[in-house]
Design brief:
Length: 303
């Protein structure tokens, strides 16, 4: 039996499911197999207003937690400014308790253009984002929260705290140097977007390393991940949906197993500690092909 004895690869959770099409048995079987194969974690994304049918990330992760024992569970990323930080903190600390400390949390700024339907003003957009993250951390770790910011003033306690101490790992996404600096100030890791090419991600990692040095922060204490859209086999399976989402599919890793191995190897060489393999559909079949035909050659090369 193939076992991936590494913490460098993660998979996506089946989340793009149309009305009435969720198959509990298939979902459980996929998770059991991902855990059996030794993947580090399984990840969701947030897409509340999305023409593509997408289940909610917290609910999917909670269901997944009940189906697994070891697999870590994450979201890359929550657009946290459209949430109440107190409600989001409570939901995530609850999930961390239910999973016995297997939660990974990602936050991203999103776009000002998306705020209107959620009743959030674009004024002070970045400050609202960073305050919300710091308030959630306080809820997860401090006996009593005493938070006095521009947007949030809280004198209260939240129990229980997060299972992980002081809190679940916080990943932050984004494209620009300012987002990378925020990740260093407020996070434990940076996750490159699936829509970014490997070359663009390599540039972000160079910026990240320079900023870590400028901040006097040990690079070993800060993880780097990249979501990669991948398809083993026919390229059209994934390039069509990506072209509709992004206008092109230049960021995809697809084709025969050796081509996929080469593409994923380039992501690792660009600086990813964790590669988030997002197959978008046909997850069970792609899981087997990745584990059996693509990743073994990468694992033999070592870190």
């Amino acid at each position: 039996m193939t076992t991936i004895t590494t913490d460098r690869f993660a998979v996506s959770l089946p989340q793009q499911i149309s009305d009435g099409a969720f198959d509990p048995a298939a979902f459980r079987a996929y998770l059991r197999r991902a855990e059996e194969l030794g993947f580090h974690s399984a990840w969701t994304r947030e897409g509340t207003l999305n023409p593509v049918p997408t289940l909610g990330p917290i609910e999917v992760m909670t269901y997944a937690a009940a189906c697994t024992e070891r697999l870590r569970l994450g979201c890359a990323v929550f657009v946290s400014v459209v949430h109440s930080p107190l409600h989001l903190a409570k939901s995530l600390s609850t999930l961390d308790q239910l999973s016995r400390g297997r939660l990974e949390v990602g936050f991203g700024l999103g776009s000002r253009n998306l705020l209107g339907p959620f009743g959030v003003s674009p004024e002070g957009f970045v400050t609202r984002f960073t305050e919300g993250i710091e308030l959630m951390k306080a809820c997860w770790s401090e006996p009593k929260v005493a938070f006095h910011g521009r947007f949030f003033q809280v004198e209260a306690a939240m129990e229980p705290k997060a299972y992980q101490k002081p809190h679940p790992p916080v990943w932050m996404g984004g494209h620009q140097p300012a987002a990378i600096r925020r990740a260093i100030r407020h996070g434990d890791g940076f996750v490159g977007a699936g829509g970014a090419t490997t070359a663009a991600f390599a540039g972000q990692v160079r910026t990240l390393r320079a900023e870590l040095e400028r901040a006097g922060r040990d690079p070993a204490s800060f993880r780097v991940a990249k979501r990669v859209y991948v398809s083993v086999g026919a390229t059209g399976r994934i390039e069509g949906p990506l072209s509709r989402m992004y206008g092109d599919a230049d960021m995809a890793v697809s084709g025969p197993p050796d081509a996929c191995a080469q593409g994923l190897g380039e992501v690792l060489e660009a600086g990813a500690d964790l590669v988030l393999l997002d197959t978008m559909s046909d997850e069970a079949e792609q899981l087997e092909r990745l584990a059996g035909e693509v990743l073994p050659s990468l694992l033999q090369q070592g870190p």
